[in-house]
Design brief:
The complex is a heteropentamer of chains A (347), B (239), C (367), D (256) and E (291).
Chain A (H helix, E strand, L loop, with lengths): L1 H41 L4 H26 L7 H19 L5 H24 L7 H21 L9 E2 L7 H19 L2 H11 L1 H6 L4 H27 L1 E2 L6 H14 L4 H17 L5 H17 L16 H20 L2
Chain B lengths: L5 E12 L2 E12 L3 E6 L5 H8 L6 E6 L2 E2 L5 H7 L1 E4 L11 H8 L6 H14 L1 H5 L10 H14 L4 E5 L7 H16 L3 E5 L3 H7 L2 E6 L2 E7 H6 L1 H7 L3
Parallel strand pairs in B: 3-8, 3-9, 6-7, 7-8
Antiparallel strand pairs in B: 1-2, 1-4, 4-5, 9-10
Helix pairs in contact in B: 3-6, 4-6
Chain C lengths: L1 H5 E8 L6 H20 L3 E3 L2 E11 L4 H13 L5 E3 L4 H14 L2 E4 L20 E3 L4 H15 L4 E7 L3 H16 L3 E8 L7 H10 L3 E4 L6 H10 L6 E3 L6 H7 L7 E4 L8 H14 L5 H20 L4 H10 L2 E4 L2 E5 L6 E2 L2 E7 L2 E8 L2
Parallel strand pairs in C: 1-3, 1-4, 4-5, 5-6, 7-8, 7-9, 9-10, 10-11
Antiparallel strand pairs in C: 2-3, 11-15, 12-13, 13-14, 15-16
Helix pairs in contact in C: 2-11, 3-4, 5-6, 11-12
Classes of the chains: A mainly alpha (347), B alpha/beta (239), C alpha/beta (367), D alpha/beta (256), E mainly alpha (291).
Bound molecules: adenosine-5'-triphosphate (ATP) (2 copies) and magnesium ion (2 copies).
The site of one magnesium ion has 3 residues of chain D, from helix 1.
Amino acid sequence: MNRTGTAYATWRDGWRRFTARKYFWPAVLACGLAFSIAADRYDFVDLYVQLIVIYVGINIILTVSLNLINGYMGEFSVGHAGFMAVGAYTASLITVHVLPQSVAAVGFPVAVLAGGLAAALIGFLVAIPSFKTRGDYLAIVTLAFGMIVKSILENIDAVGGPRGLLGMEKLTTLPWVFFWTALSVWVIRNLVYSNYGRGVLSVREDEIAADLMSVNTRQVKIIAFVVSSFFAGIAGGLFAHALQFINPRMFDIIKSTDVLIMVYLGGIASLAGSIIGAVIYTLLLEILRPLGIWRMVFMPLLLVVLMIYRPRGIMGLRETKLFEPLGDLVTERLWRKTKKEASDAAP
Amino acid sequence: MTASDLLLTVSGLCVSYEGIEALHGVSFEVAKGEIVTLIGANGAGKSSILRAVSGLVPYAGAVVYTGKDLKNLPADRIVAAGIAHVPEGRGIFGNLTVGENLKLAAWQRRDKSAVARDLDRVFDLFPRLRERTKQLGGMLSGGEQQMLAVGRALMSDAELLLLDEPSMGLSPVLVREIFKIISEINREGKTVLLVEQNAHLALQIARRAYVLETGRIVLSGTGRELAGNPRIREAYLGG
Amino acid sequence: SKDDASQIKIGLIAELTGDIPAVGASCKNAAEMAVAEVNAAGGIQLGDKKFKIKLIIEDNAGKADQSASAAQKLITQNKVVAIVGPNASRYALPAAEIAESGKVALITPWSTAPKATLDSRTNASKKYVFRACFIDPFQGGVVAKFTLDNLKFRKAAVLYDVASEYNKGIAEIFKTVFEQNGGKIVAFETYTTNDKDFSSQLTKIRQAAPEIIFLPNYYSEVPLQIQQAKRLGIAAPFIGADAWGSEELLKLCGSDCEGYYFSTHYAADAAGEATRKFIADYRSRYSATPDDVAALTYDSFGLLKQALATAGKNDRQAVRDALARIPRYDGVTGTMQFREGSGDPVKSAVILKIRDGKFTWFADAKP
Amino acid sequence: MPLLEISGLTHYFAGLCAVSDFHLAVAPQELVGIIGPNGAGKTTVFNLITGVYRPSEGSIRLDGRELTGQSPHAITRLGIARTFQNIRLFKDLTVLDNVRIAHYGEAAYSPVEALLHIGRFRAEEKRITVSALDLLAVFKLDFVAHEKARSLPYGLQRKLEIARALATRPRLLLLDEPAAGMNPNEILQLMEFIGWIRRTFSVTILLIEHQMRLVMGICERLVVLDFGATIAAGLPAAVRSDPKVLEAYLGEEAAP
Amino acid sequence: MAYFFQQLLNALQLGSIYALIALGYTMVYGILTMINFAHGDLFMVGAFFCFLLAVYLKLSFVPTLLLSMLGVACLGVIIERLAYKPLRTAPRVSAIITALGVGLFLENFTLALSPYPKHIPPLLTNVTWTVGAVSISSLQVLVIVLSLGLMLILDFVVWRTKAGMAMRAISWDKTIVPLMGVSVNKIISLTFAIGTGLGGAAGVLYSLAYPVIDPYMGIMVGWKAFICAVVGGIGNVRGAMIGGFILGAVEILVAAFFPSTYRDFVAFTLLLGLLILRPYGILGRPQPQKV
Ligand SMILES: Nc1ncnc2c1ncn2[C@@H]1O[C@H](COP(=O)(O)OP(=O)(O)OP(=O)(O)O)[C@@H](O)[C@H]1O
Ligand SMILES: Nc1ncnc2c1ncn2[C@@H]1O[C@H](COP(=O)(O)OP(=O)(O)OP(=O)(O)O)[C@@H](O)[C@H]1O
Ligand SMILES: [Mg+2]
Ligand SMILES: [Mg+2]
């Protein structure tokens, strides 16, 4: 009696906790949005801090979206900056040349969205070689793609060539960054915990077996690449309007490796990991500034030591419960409960 | 069985994977010239024992081979000491040809003519391998791979062979063939520690046997005794 | 705090790591030297008190975003009175945007892209952004006219880095001016930053048989280009721009560059007293000859020093206003004149000739 | 009409003829065994049926529909599922996800609904999860539903593979050496289990196995392959005394 | 016609430089299936060793080459022991990211010591022969001959020696290799020593051909070696060589016959097309995958 009573109580508590979570995320999001709007409007946060927070947000978007390909799908894409460039240039061209200056601020979300869509279209094209090619061969495809994007941009004088594109207003504000960051995390989390997301995982685990278990691997790859590049494009649009200046060199292989480092630092196949990775990396770069040249000696050492002690990154393959869907959590909890009862009942 | 006959002594062996203990203090011994078999259900820990002996997993407890403590010895030194291990799942190098797989197993041997002799012997035992000398290991069928794995163990010229389910996935003729070959090798003086699911045949050729259940040895005796034990008949021989 | 009151804080953003570390290193060296000189003399007289300068150095890692955040940090966290750097236009641009909106004067020593000091939307001059160097269109024109008028060559080839705004900018101006004045560009070839092999482009140039080859590229690349060209049997002479102007070029080039001309900011041998002293001090301090970045950085600090002195107070707006009002400044890189409302100095270029393994003055090119 | 009809199936690997002129018709609800020496080409036949390899020649029909040339997932969706000779689970995923993935083909919501968790998403997810848990319960695997597949003991991994295959709702189930690595007692249990699956899920089964006890005990018909060619076919009793089979596969001592 | 031959010769030189770097890269990459992103930086260290030996010790070409190779090989083995060995059983990407970190460390550490480019004095007298309208330099010949020779040696080691056999076995499954009595640590160290030593050799030859060196010279070259190794077919020594020549040829010939502005665009598009046509590289085959 007593035992079932406790078990029931834990179950009930658990259930309450989960239902309470129904309000947790909306509350967090509402507060975050309110705070970011207030900070933007009344400037009670140092502009430097604001700028860093903007970078953190953009890096979270980049990291989470690359994690979809490199962590969840298990590929090794090294051309993420290319998608970012497509988004950045598309969005900037729209705000600078298409939209009249008076409506640029209003049109900003549309421009960013257009940047994301343009990148997604390119992502679709890059997905096609991935049908036949895997692993390092696909890495070269993405690498070549990144180089091609950079080279094209360098050669179009209409977008400034190597001199870059300017004329954007500083439209990337805290509220917008907050909005897009939250959206990207939410959407990618939704994808991961869906049928298609499980398809993505199965491609990583064993593509042949996945195919034989009815997973349309081509469809899965297209979805993963499109979603990932869409958000990389969004990040590009935000980046361009935060710096008010872009040039092709910003989106070279070094940018791609930065994102890679954030992904693997935080941990593969983990949204929480991506967020942690992006935050830590961006902040460390700023905090360690006083070290001067030695900052760039120290950071890689830190990375190496971390990888040795946590080879899968800080969160590798683990996720905070906060991101898992309620339904799964409830079944899992019920299951643990029965298992515990069974073992309690055993002599 | 005198102490000088003892080849391998395992005592208090404990193995854990990711913090979960799979073997809880296993002790047994193998004497020179014996075939000793370990039987047990899936997941009982048979393979873990072999892995510990050949130094593939860390363990607590002691493994002594011809008076020498094997603990802390890297796996390749254990091979040099005279223990060959045919691992579960065969462990064929798929990108090496059949011939290279066999030659690699003779890595530590210097006597070229003896190696050539052993190679011939392996080909005599498994003519199929001779036909496929140049084929990549990865392209062999399951049975062919199994032959290659046993062949490799012979190439190392070890005194003690650890065989992990050598009959898995083989056709009935080959199963009998493999067991015949094991007896033959044994008659030629090699000692064999055999892990088998085919308990019928294993108990037939084994001098002694141990029964393993969830990481503990629960029964031991001669092959014949255990084959006659009703409990064993029911649990492992299918009535 | 007390510190703040007794010090003038100046920020420096330099490319210490990233793609052009040599530029960052020279910039940092010259800045430290300039500040040390001021402080050794007791500081700058503001009103009735002497203030020492505190230099805050930030590495931008050769990244645009870090240039912006470094600028923002210097403005809001370190509360500097003015900023020097970054050097390359691609890093100076985002930092300049921040300085402009933060209302802090920024002097970029070395960014020659016209856009750096202009408002990107209106193309009017930025209010808070200045530079110590002349701009690409001026220099490209100088070299083109010199080639046509003094050297009397009519057929030229160009080899430049297409991925770098500086090289491309000058190359294009050169082409326009050269063709406008009756010359002919027979080959206009490119490569990408970090390339070390130019054989394909040079073979093409050889095919086009130019009378002279213009290399608006950095001193670290020029020797490779000239040596490879000679190996391919190209006999035409070469001509360059200010990025040649480091004595490293002489070391790297050996005798291969003998007799060639290039345009730059100043001529060490024809220089006045101040310049010679600067070079000597720099040499004794760092046992290296200052390159153009070092000289321009030093001049940027000179400008700031003068502005502070005329402003008479440790105040951002006052410093900016004083800077904007400096009519003329005699720096180590020559005389600069600022036109009303523009951050770009008017200064003359010089043409140097490499003779006996030394840079020697050849001609002045007035704007 | 036979459920599965294979005719003239031939396959070469770089000159090596792994399967030659293979014919087989399987009626609905039948349980047919394929046996033969190692390397005879049995697994290759499975790979050809499921679309892993494209046959060099021949045709494979399911319910009269041609399968050759279709992609594996399309074939699976038409109703053929399999297990693997070397277990191929999604090792780093949970047991539940292993089974849910096999529902991929039947989830009736679009990617957009998945991205935004709207529309049919919730209902479908619930249905799939419940269906997967039900299946696991039927297989008595529900108590490990949230464990990683890699942590299961071998026997349970085999079982999970079968469960995962059944989750695709096949009409034809291909089992490749399900008894490998099991002791005689476990084989007896497996025999019962296969019979039970066949009844419960009313599937047709094609089975590759080397354990004669299992093959003779449950197969209704046998096909014997050797060097890619069919050397005997028919009722188990007849096949087991066929001299060619005795020589190539069972060995002389097995003669009755 | 002479133009074409001259460009072909240019392609051959650049190709053999790439091939030489790709060789060392493939050695580690093919055997340990580990992308050693630090290879380009070890190559840079090789060039700096060359600089130090040639300028401060005033050594001649052969001792400079050998000592640089030795120095870089030692560095490679040390790096392997400290940074990669702990990650042997970890997922492959962990080692890749670690290598990326090691590479960044080497670059920036060298940079912190000296940010300015360095000039390598000519260690060999360079002679240029002119045949018709085609110029050939002795350096070109040296680079081409030396890299071909090294390739042949390497090919022999990997395919014809016992150590090579063990290396290939390790590339398949390193957990089983000790059961053959092979010391995995020794073989891996040997592999690293050879691979990075070749990187050092490439650094020396490269700095003779292009005598201006800087701490970042290895980045792009490292990525290009990666491209060569993959385009040639992973783990294939000859493939890496061919990959190097292809990349060299593509870069040179595209610039020769198209406007050079489009070189990168056309070159990478061609590579992309090549990979789409041959998804496993020129000489590569899909890993035998038995289902
Ligand atoms: N790498 C591993 N990680 C985690 N657990 C493991 C690992 N290898 C084995 N185990 C667990 O250890 C226990 C013993 O495994 P072992 O392989 O020794 O059993 P076995 O008797 O050989 O079984 P089988 O007959 O299936 O081969 C099992 O419960 C198994 O799940
Ligand atoms: N991908 C492949 N490439 C080349 N040869 C192959 C390939 N797959 C199988 N083979 C060869 O084809 C033949 C048949 O192989 P298959 O796997 O079908 O045999 P099997 O009958 O299943 O044998 P077993 O009972 O041992 O599993 C074998 O000789 C094998 O070596
Ligand atoms: Mg086992
Ligand atoms: Mg098979």
